[in-house]
Amino acid sequence: MDEQPLETIETPALLLDPAKLERNIERMRAQLAEAGDGVVLRPHLKTAKSIEVARRVLGGSNGPITVSTLLEAERFAEAGITDILYAVGIAQAKLDRVIEIRRREIDLTIITDNLVAAEAIAAAARASGEPIPVLIEIDSDGHRGGVPPEDRDRLIAIARTLASGGAVPRGVMTHYGGSYDARSQAELGEAARRERETTLAAAATLRAAGFEAPVASIGSTPTALNTKDLDGITEVRAGVYHFFDLVMAGLGVCSIDEIALSVLATVIGHQQDKGWILVDAGWMAMSRDRGTANQAVDQGYGLVCDASGLPWPDLIMTSANQEHGIIAVRPGSGAVLPDLPVGTQLRILPNHACATASQFDAYHVLGPDGAVTGRWPRFNGW
Amino acid sequence: MDEQPLETIETPALLLDPAKLERNIERMRAQLAEAGDGVVLRPHLKTAKSIEVARRVLGGSNGPITVSTLLEAERFAEAGITDILYAVGIAQAKLDRVIEIRRREIDLTIITDNLVAAEAIAAAARASGEPIPVLIEIDSDGHRGGVPPEDRDRLIAIARTLASGGAVPRGVMTHYGGSYDARSQAELGEAARRERETTLAAAATLRAAGFEAPVASIGSTPTALNTKDLDGITEVRAGVYHFFDLVMAGLGVCSIDEIALSVLATVIGHQQDKGWILVDAGWMAMSRDRGTANQAVDQGYGLVCDASGLPWPDLIMTSANQEHGIIAVRPGSGAVLPDLPVGTQLRILPNHACATASQFDAYHVLGPDGAVTGRWPRFNGW
């Protein structure tokens, strides 16, 4: 597309700074090169849901990647990516679609943590002749799914069930989502240590039971960026590091300046006696995610920057309706409300990049001079 | 489309019960027929964003409607709707698009609450020759935008500015969003009374200043369903009543049984020691809306029903990741966790219909026997 000055972009719009994206990608590459000898990065593309972002993240290779929906798997497969992990416990009704994708010569791996699904996968592998590869999910942090680490019998039974139908127990995976609640670097380091150790123990259990189980997969942006020891781990999954967001900044995982994503909005009114600035971006644009609400610094629905991306001190979106955002100074901060007339464009940094990006069907991509130089489509839905 | 048994629908999916939709539509019609002599219902279609829902809500007429984005205005205009109110304070950069829609012989009305925008509208009306109709937004509840009711000078100045350029100050509008925080029927009745009185006073101010200002527009589902006096009001805007949701049920505005919208999900695992059931619908499907968090009954991310739509006592989605929901009994309720094996389909009622529906690009429409009989597209975005 032709270069468009920001003033001509209709609001709300999702802005992406590709220079920050590239720096964030490089930071994770360098971190893993230092921490892990030969460990593979399998970026999670559930945040980006974009072919153009995938190309930059993969640096020209055709994988591997992680996805959160089969729609992502299909779209990335069409774009030439051939090694895909679908990292949500499989539902039996989705197995036909999995097999269909695999038949396009895509090495699609799925996950499960239970025997009922393992039996369904085994039956589907037997009926189709597809050697469906499966990672068995391990619960490293007590936050979501996964086989409890101490339940070795269940782990082995799942692997046996899979293999009995010709499916392939390819190894184990975990996601230490509890890292998002860490309060210090020490807690992040401890999360990374436990994530690795739980995974290696489970992989060792499978191998001792006679399974090859070559894969030991871990992943979350906070743990990936806070570990110095990936010995034994074969791959790391992380996604939000492409863009970063206020939750990651609140965790100390990134700086505000590294956040590559923002929502462009326009001032549409004021309530002067209340110290409010109203903008045409509400929760439909920002999402309802309030991920910083329980952090040390609550950023409301987002931190407000000028149109060039420079944050005002303590200016946040304090509340949001569907298409209205209310901007005010952070309660108790004593900051001064800037004079922002009706018509002024603002950029709002999101709490949670995954949630905010999913409210839009495309990124408006910024050039070095701050104008919009491209439009990268996203694929939402399932 | 051919009828599809629910078991064949891939999850997550957004289900709509058209029989409940019709009953909810009829309830609002009957309520307004009783409360207001000749008052017009101008349904807000920001929740539905669907041509098929609009047809049912309008009962065959071609308007009037309310929208929250210009994309909605364009799509509904293409479908033959000719009288549209865009009820978000206009940004100057959107005026070209407004004029373009009006030139298709659509009576598109916009709103503002300030002089800067009024000047831009007047200039656009003058330059284009389009007599853009404008409702001036009044702040009836201190929750969002709008001219403060006591600021008659500003109200009149906005009307004069509009008229000076050939735009038409068609009247006043307000939204008593504070009604969503009401704690009793008495508070809802008081909200409805204040909404009406503020609006009539502002309309009277404009008329006394010499403007025709024929329109006095109010609206919110809770106030519309809790008023017996609409004397002087010309139109009522309301939207969420089409579907209702748990927030409305918590307000006492509807019963759980009237909620027409739910998210179909599949059980993908359990954490038995924690009493958790994991499903393949997380916040990407439910949205991050936690609108019941501050109500008397906190419904988590949604109330869980069986596949036929019958709720289990106190079974809710207690937490959500992007594509994972964790279902458990409501803390402190003492309810018993039902035995729901992996593969079981569930239906989850949403906190906030507007937010949950916006996570999907279509409704799966249920037939009388519970199978899916149609797919109604939605249009998200701007």
TrEMBL record, chains A, B:
Alphabetized UniProt keyword annotations: Lyase
Gene3D superfamilies: Alanine racemase, D-serine dehydratase-like domain
Gene Ontology terms: biological process: D-serine catabolic process
Record-annotated D-serine dehydratase-like domain positions: 260-367
Domain of life: Bacteria
Family assignment from sequence similarity: Belongs to the DSD1 family.
Name of the protein this chain belongs to: Alanine racemase
